[in-house]
Amino acid sequence: MIFWDRTSYIVQLLVSCLLFMAPVEKRKNYVARVAAASVVLIGAFWIINGSIGIPTEGIARLIYWITYLIVSVGFVLFGIRCSFGEAVYCMICASATQHVASDLYLIYRVTGGKSAVAAVVIYALVYTLFYFAFAKRLPQNRKYVVSRHDLIPMATIILFVGILSVYEYPELDSGVKNLHDVIYEISDALCCIYVLWVQVSQSAKARLQKELDGVSLAYKIQRAQYQVNQENIDIINRKCHDLKHQIRRLRKTENLQEKNDYFDELEDAIMIYDMALNTGNKALDTVLMENGLYCKNHDIQWTCMADGTKLGFMKDEDIYALFGNAFDNAITAVMQVSDNSKRVISSKMLTQDKVMVIQIQNYFVGNIRYEDGLPVTTKEEKEEHGFGMKSIRYTAEKYNGTITVNANNGIFVLQILLPLP
């Protein structure tokens, strides 16, 4: 019993943290990590609470309880792959869940209940319910999507509730003694539930907005694809028209040298269709062939090294969106370069340690301005073309990937990292 008195709160908080860590991406050796961290933290608080006790008043008491929250953030960071802000978010959700369970148990106490088994049942029921109601529904693609606008008010509310709880009950086992205390515990629980419910609602709204953005993006890509296909058809029609006239000229000429010259022209004209690729992925083959054809017809040197056999985990439309937008940006940039020797686009795709690395390089002129870590479009119709880089990032993040951009000495480099399943 003494051991539980000294460690009950840290155990409750760690278990609550585990609820919200369960649905997200975990670090390697997750079970061993959280088990070791739990033993260390429980042992540490058992020793601390046994040697110096729990402060009963003043700022020391507040610092004491805040320490629990700080170590919980470290516990989350140690167990799952997340940023510091995401770890704080996870801890806040866990703290709110623990508060609700504690409030219900204290309300049970005012009715005269004293059973330790009842306490276990209450916590188990609350934790199970909150796992399915909140913990499973908050992450998106196994990650917590956290913004400063959400985190600050959420943290402020939970911290305020926690401070009130600390000073309302100076002893852990003092219980609820009157109607005022019952009302306070109900208000505290409802406040925590409200905070979590708002997060679930915002998460659902954000998920729906992403889907709507995806639909809008797909429409824009289809429209852009139609324009590209139409241009390719026009190119083919012109080439066919030229070939028809060259064949007629061949029939009429008897000069051997002139015939050889015509054959050279024909070979050069036919080479434009020699863009057939076999990367192992049809969607990738399509987008590479279309962009390669465009580059060849616009005097752009284009090199490509790609293995598409491991792209099976991506949808065809996502492959087209990712590579299509990346090449569109590169082509737009090199078209503005006047030096023909620098009208070059280089692309490669390889796998390193279960991570697919996609890198596209091109020359550019002028200065690049950034917003939110992405270069701002240089096209005049920003409302029509500004979705390119955002689409690339959106598609990469959909598969838990990241993108980085770098521009130095007139060379722009886009790198996309996609973890393989």
Going across the biggest sheet, name each strand in turn: 1-2-3-7-6
The residue-averaged pLDDT reads 81
Give the biggest beta sheet. Answer: 5 strands, mixed
Low-confidence stretches: 170-176, 379-386
| Shape annotation | elongated
Helical amount among residues, as a percent range? 55-70%
Please give the number of β-strands.
7
Radius of gyration: 31 Å
Q: What gap, in angstroms, lies between the N and C termini?
A: 46 Å
Q: What's the total helix number? A: 12
Name the structural class: alpha+beta
Strand and helix order: HHHHHHHHHEHEEEEHHEE
**Strand content of the residues, in percent?**
5-15%
For the record, the count of structural domains works out to: 2
Plain-language structure description:
The protein is an alpha+beta fold. It is built from 12 helices and 7 strands. It has helices at 2-21, 30-51, 58-79, 84-110, 116-135, 148-168, 179-252, 256-270, 282-297, 316-334, 382-385, 387-398, and strands spanning 301-305, 344-352, 355-363, 370-371, 374-375, 402-408, 411-419. The strands form 2 sheets. Strands 1-2-3-7-6 form a 5-stranded mixed β-sheet, with helices on one face. Strands 4-5 form a two-stranded antiparallel sheet.
Question: How is this structure best summarized?
Answer:
The chain has 421 residues and is of the alpha+beta class. 65% of the residues lie in helices and 10% in strands.
